[in-house]
Amino acid sequence: MIEKNYQPADIETRMARLWEEAGAFKAGRPERRDARPFTVVIPPPNVTGSLHMGHALNNTLQDILCRFERMRGRDVLWQPGTDHAGIATQMVVERQLMERQEPGRREMGRTKFLERVWQWKAESGGVIVNQLKRLGASCDWSRERFTMDEGLSRAVVKVFVELHRAGLIYKDKRLVNWDPKLLTAISDLEVQQVEVRGNLWYLRYPLEGKAFHPDDPATFIVVATTRPETMLGDTAVAVNPDDERYADLVGKYVILPLVGRKIPILADEYSDPEKGSGAVKITPAHDFNDFEVGRRHNLPQISVLDQEGCLALVDNEDYLRDLPEGSAQLAEELHNVDRFAARKLIVARLEDFGFLERIEPNTHMVPHGDRSGVVIEPYLTDQWYVDAHTMAQPAIAAVRSGATNFVPKNWEKTYFEWMENIQPWCISRQLWWGHQIPAWYGPDGKVFVAETEEEAVGNALGYYVEQEVITPDQGAEMARDPDRREGFITRDEDVLDTWFSSALWPFSTLGWPDDEADVERYYPTDVLVTGFDIIFFWVARMMMMGLHFMKDVPFPTVYIHALVRDEKGAKMSKSKGNVIDPLHLIDDYGADALRFTLAAMAAQGRDIKLASQRVEGYRNFATKLWNACRFAEMNGCALPADFDATQATQTLNRWIAHETARATREVTEAIEAYRFNDAAASIYRFVWNVYCDWYLELAKPVLMGEEGAAKSETLAMVAWARDEILKLLHPFMPFITEELWAVTAKRDGLLVLTEWPRKAGLSSDEAVMMATTGPNEGLLPPVLLALDNADFSDPAAEAEIGWVVDLVTAIRSVRAEMNITPATLTPLVLAGASAETRDRAQRWNDVIRRMARLADISFADRPPEGAVQLLVRGEVAALPLKGVIDLGAEKTRLDKELAKAEADIKRVDAKLGNEKFVANAPEEIVEEEKEKREAAVARKAKIIEALERLKNAA
RNA sequence: GGGCGCGUAGCUCAGCGGGAGAGCACCUCGUUGACAUCGAGGGGGUCACAGGUUCGAUCCCUGUCGCGCCCA
């Protein structure tokens, strides 16, 4: 029994429980042992996260694919899990400690702190998983993984060690993006370039051997810089080799103001003559470009900042080397001053001595940390790197060859662009929460990388015994007792970039390296669904790791979906306050409505501007379906076991079978092509504008009428089409369809595991091929071996019902125009009707009268005088409304129609009169135009007749 | 500076070589046998602009203008 009102919240909790209890989402179901797998790995959300619109869209689309393929008989594995999100999670827990006024991370110590993070994860890490369940995500939750669980951690270590052995992971000292707030290195991708209004400072650097005077340009060279405070670390001045202004200065030296260091003026292409003064200061330790210039010219690298972005000058050997006496005083004064305060101090000091020429306002891009929000400092440190350039090559080739395809295809360009210019990937992070790098150091800094501490220590001790740094006895001692080797062998403190573990996700979650059975079965996955913002972060890296370790791409298809924005097109962000919370929408309208909205708006290649009004509209759609099912139930519609829709005899029933087949084809093909919006539009139109608006309405007289073959067939057909609708709609609106499936009939099983309607044109052989890996047909779901005629089509039924629809529509339209209230029943006269039309009119008499508000239907050779005359499929239908209608208005209406017909004829004639058109256009197009002309000419004739009669009546 | 994409009905968006579409909003009418979370009907668009290709362009090409995103 269907409830009177559709209540999403109640249905959703019950259906979720039902699926859970049935283990409906489990991969590897015994009865599908021989079915072809369909595998998708979820983009693992951060454990710290909560569901936002991007997740809602991403997971709705994945769920549509998974439910669709599950219904098509595949063994679906949708692999869920979460990501440990190093920086984000560590920040969350640290903030919590602060709020509770507990000891901070450093006071607490590493071990204790990590315990706290795990504790936090246990308490709060399940939030987003539960939110995904509310959305209806049909993941195999029994296989949920976490990037820091034991198995995945083993995968991380193994990958690190193997890549290190292969020379693809190495340690290097170079400039990194340093976050002075979080005190860690971050990768290029975690840096956001932000436009900042700053200044360009023009500084005078005195030439060596000349007495500096601010008024004498011959005694100095002007350099322009956006970062005056780094001048303390300058080791050269560069000018463009083609810049004639400075040609004679190349090779000479300047004396660095305030500092007194003698540094060369050199020629390098990097210096842009158009920018600033054309001369640029070179600070290799504090600027990426300068670093490269420095390498080319063998310049020293003088770092003048510490980890926190404060000047570090006292005891700074690099800085103090070769400086004149007295410079130590400046070092003392500026030591430990923050970089931004230092900027002011240094500029003021330069100005005092006449070294500041001028200040020019300058807007430029400044790197910021995407987590901390502070200005990133290029900083010279030792870090671990992946040789991304080498690993990118197979990943590039795989997309070039089509082994992996992007949908839509244009994202491949973005992918290539980045991959072909890829920089070494800095993977070490100075954090605690993450996979600690499996590297150990000896007293001389020599590194030992191994999968276990035991192995690394063994190697190290062996080495130092051999080198006679320690005796064999000491070595044995240290091997036995960790306390004894403390201070001698130490483990690398750093952890790996979170994306390092995410890169392994498609195979680490399947059990690699411990158990490869599932890797065998489910790798490579079938499709990756994700947003374009993580193509670089994640997709590219999975490609590299997958190809290297699995020797195969992780997925043949990458579907890239849009970003969800607010209704004005702005990116949703907390600071803007324009975030629409998907959970609120679920509360208000139900998960099904939200899902359908997102699918309907997921057109390829465009961002989604979401308005909640749209969600409301699709909630109404759910209500419509609900009520249609209630209607079927109230009329006792039920599907007999042996019912075959294609064998129906009633025209109306053959018509809905035909329309259902069409909808099935459209929905199936659209999902197959990742055209979610087309699929949604198709099922929407079918349910509302075909099934509800016409089929149920046209069936009413039969259903209310006397018992008999026609009625029993219709009772069955209403139920049959309803069931097909529930199946087609299930991937989009799983909750309401599952509920209706359960309450509308006694079922063998859940809808979620019911077979998808066979697409037209798919032979049973192909269906078998699709769903199986082997020839063992005995284990197939029986439906895949039966059911033919899925491409059922009946043009005759289409023509007849089409006529009824057109007739009713035309009458309704003219009645509304003439302001005839529904209470007024009018007669209808079919003039000069063909035998076929007479038959049809008799067959559909009840329906037409009811829907068009008619008193009766009669026939005549000619339309009566003073009637409204309508053209329906080439014949005249007249409404004798003498006295009711305004003859003047009717004339105006007919004049308008006439003008339209004449315009149509004129346009077609222009085409057909064009020799080139007739010669060049495809035959069927020309034929079509001719038919259009004929129809328009016939229409025109009838309208003229109608006008004549109107004149007579007046 | 390089790349990608977008300018179609009041709004949000489909369509993309042969007669301009949907949803919402708007206007009119309606307690018609499931549904007012509804039904019926209606108005509304030089498809940004300018060239070109073509028998034919909203659709392809070029340019201009406006907007967005990514990378330097």
How is this fold's topology laid out?
Blueprint: H1 8-22, E1 37-41, H2 53-71, E2 75-79, E3 81-82, H3 86-99, H4 105-108, H5 110-124, H6 127-135, E4 145-146, H7 150-165, E5 169-179, E6 184-186, E7 191-206, E8 220-225, E9 236-239, E10 253-255, E11 262-267, E12 279-282, H8 288-297, H9 317-320, H10 327-334, H11 339-352, E13 356-369, E14 377-386, H12 388-400, E15 405-407, H13 411-420, E16 425-426, E17 428-429, E18 439-441, E19 447-449, H14 453-466, H15 472-480, H16 482-485, E20 490-491, E21 495-496, H17 498-502, H18 505-508, H19 517-522, E22 527-531, H20 535-550, E23 557-561, E24 564-565, H21 582-589, H22 591-601, E25 608-609, H23 612-634, H24 651-672, H25 676-704, H26 709-729, H27 734-744, H28 764-771, H29 795-817, E26 826-831, H30 835-843, H31 845-852, E27 854-860, E28 867-872, E29 875-880, H32 887-912, H33 915-920, H34 923-953
Parallel strand pairs: 1-2, 3-4, 9-11, 15-23, 22-23, 24-25, 26-27
Antiparallel strand pairs: 5-6, 5-14, 7-8, 7-13, 9-12, 10-11, 14-16, 17-21, 18-19, 18-20, 26-29, 28-29
Helix pairs in contact: 1-27, 2-22, 12-13, 12-20, 14-15, 21-22, 22-23, 22-25, 23-25, 24-25, 24-26, 24-29, 25-26, 26-27, 32-34
The structure holds one RNA strand of 72 nucleotides.
